[in-house]
Amino acid sequence: MSTDPSIADLQSGPVPEALTLERAALGFAALGAGARLSVLLALVKAGRKGLTVSDIQDRMGLAPSTLAHHLRSLAQAGLITQEKQGRSVVNRAAFSHLAGLGAYLLQECCAEEDACGSPGSPMSFSDRTR
């Protein structure tokens, strides 16, 4: 079992939220730009401690206005949270929402297969319930 804080959050944290089609579409649309996906991946890697805007800027090399635009899009889609700490804003991946997006995609996995969850199917039952 991995000790990565983001994985630990998903395994022991709250059950992923149930999503509507519209809310899921908003989340996936926010990931439609490579730069936003890269920012989100950096926040996932950072775990619970998150990253300040300047930390992200140093890692990504994005112009401040471009980064602000991407962070705003991710926050509006519920993929990240932002917390003001003094003069800094700490950004964190919204692990429960991300897990909810994954669960949304997989909720009907293999539903039309007779042997869903069998060793030969694309995803076993244990993979779908993590």
From TrEMBL:
SMART domains: HTH_ARSR. It comes from Roseibium aestuarii. Keywords: DNA-binding, Transcription, Transcription regulation. NCBIfam families: HTH_metalloreg (NF033788). It comes from the Bacteria. This is ArsR/SmtB family transcription factor. It holds the Pfam family HTH_20. Residues 16-113 form the HTH arsR-type domain. The lineage of its organism: Bacteria, Pseudomonadati, Pseudomonadota, Alphaproteobacteria, Hyphomicrobiales.
